[in-house]
Design brief:
Shape: globular
Distance between the termini: 24 Å
Order of helices and strands: HHHHHHHH
Helix content: over 70%
Structural class: mainly alpha
Radius of gyration: 16 Å
Strand content: under 5%
Length: 138
């Protein structure tokens, strides 16, 4: 069994609250304050879960610099006061950063009983299959 430290537990909580605040920010018509708090909490939680050095190495790999620029740039645009534009830029950067994890997540979700049945429906399966690039490295 994998040992989880107290800092990692705190990091999971911070990342969870970050996602929650991002959801609330979008729900309340792109409230800039909630989106900014959600971004800060999500990144600090990620740093605590995987460690500062691994977080830095993940975001600043040479093939991910463009994605990191869009992700951080979107956060800056949200902080400046244009939350809708910032979230669009940040979402694009997020998809570029984490696209290597999508095949793993989709394969996991296909094994979950109810969600897997939904993902195998004809229209949804064709859309989900586009994200399933097995040659993509993380």
């Amino acid at each position: 069994m994998i040992e989880i430290t107290d800092l990692q537990k705190i990091g999971v909580g911070l990342a969870g609250f970050g996602v929650f605040f991002l959801f609330l920010g979008v729900l309340f018509f792109f409230d800039g304050g909630l989106l900014a708090i959600g971004n800060i909490l999500f990144l600090s939680g990620l740093a605590l879960v995987i460690g500062l050095e691994r977080t830095f190495r993940f975001f600043f790999q040479t093939h991910k610099l463009k994605a990191t620029g869009f992700f951080v740039g979107g956060m800056v645009v949200v902080l400046i006061g244009w939350p809708i534009v910032g979230m669009c830029v940040e979402t694009y950067g997020f998809f570029l950063l984490f696209r290597g994890f999508f095949p793993v997540a989709i394969n996991f979700l296909r094994r979950v009983p109810i969600i897997g049945t939904i993902l195998y429906l004809p229209g949804i399966n064709s859309v989900v299959s586009r994200f399933e690039d097995h040659n993509q490295m993380v």
